[in-house]
Amino acid sequence: MTEDVAAVAALGDELPARASECLDALNDRIGHEGNDAPARSLVSSPIWTLAARASVDSKTTMKANRPRAVAVPDLSLVPPVLTVWLSVFRPCFTAPVWNHVLVLVAGAVLAPGKRTVTQALRVMGLGDEPGFGRYHEVLNRARWDARALARRLLLHVLDRLLPAGPVVIGVDDTIERRWGARIKARGIYRDPVRSSKGHFVKTSGLRWLSLMVIVPIPWAANRWALPFLTILAPSARWSEANGRRHKTLTTWARQAILQTKRWLPNRKLVIVGDSGFAALDLLAAVRRHVRVITRLRLDAALFEPAPARSRNQRGRTPLKGKPLPKLSAVLKSAKTRWTMVTLSQWYGDQQRALQTATGTAVWYHSGIPPVPIRWVLVRDPLGEHEPQAFLCTNLNAAPETILQWFVFRWRVETTFQEARAHLGIETQRQWSDLAILRTTPVLLGLFSMITVWASALSASDNRLLRPHAAAWYDKKEPTFSDAIAAVRRVLWSPPDFSMSRPMTDAVTIPARLLLTRHANR
Asked: Quick check: 418 pLDDT over 60?
């Protein structure tokens, strides 16, 4: 563990000053390495330890936790295979916390419906046991670093599913709909699910920024977006009320991307995001470390590269050259040369023929460093979709590669939907600030771990993972619902579980005999 920290610190020295920033998940602060003394004093205080002291449950209407009741989990309740699966995270927890973590993770996987601590305890058969407050303290008091877990999760996923090659990472935000005065960091945002171009819907909730590694899943015949780092982006109202400088979503994204690059110094990273991350300040800060692909406005101000400075030239060095035509004009120009490409999974189609035009330019806005980009125009020959523009900070990337990488980003939306449907996102009921900060990232990380576990089960025996089809639903490949079902079957059926012996000679009772006995009553 000490070597890992030293390696990360050494890498930070190699990056520019802005790249040496690090995320602090405990007090929602960004600082330079070596300047995190307030965070250490916070987590080392007695209130952050899993101490055996009097406490009450988060809901005042529930029974108070017994002061002298120390919850010692019965580890026989935890399937041994789960302990092996989670062993990669064992160094991040102390022994007492780790025993409680095993019970909570097992309950979160097996529980249907809501993912509350009490629901997880009921599923594990601990609904009548005293000392339930100790399990709440895992989230709202115990000392463990969520950022260290995120790093281990990313390395574990790549080791199992993508050991070599470029790493494509999708970045996106989502709204967790939460209400109540104790949800302090919530804000009012546009609901991306219920809103449309002509209809605006607002919702109250917490805004999360999530980074997901997009990897191929052999048994699903597709790529999935697996979350590994999820960050709470508090609202501007919360920042103003707490006297803190408000950080925009792109600021959080910049810090998270640079943190990920420090974790993977020897891998090529490709960051894909929607139009919300097409910000010049973000691209200028990370383009020397990672490749970024986003949408591009058709009216973006594009220029030729700056001319070389002459020997006797006076004044400052120019940042840009002559202005280029807007992409909207290039789209309508008869001189534009279009190339046909075939792309898979374009808006749900298996194969789609598209027309593309590409070029290089410098995207510039006053007061922000210029960013060299390769732009790609796309139009549909059938006219079913509107023309779109994309950018890539790697000038040598091929248009087909840029579009294929961007298509992978749509798997992020599927992950958010599956996590809400099968892992109970938005059903948590924590009121503690620290518990709120931890629960949603843990549930999204559990999505990735279940996928890794299902991949291991499929590799050992492909019969363990099969699609659950129906007469009205011809599902050919397994989905996440099938993956979590396979993991649950393994947790429910340990090797020493007693099963009835199968009956090879079935005795059939004649229907006439049953009817005769029923008539004689």
From this structure: yes
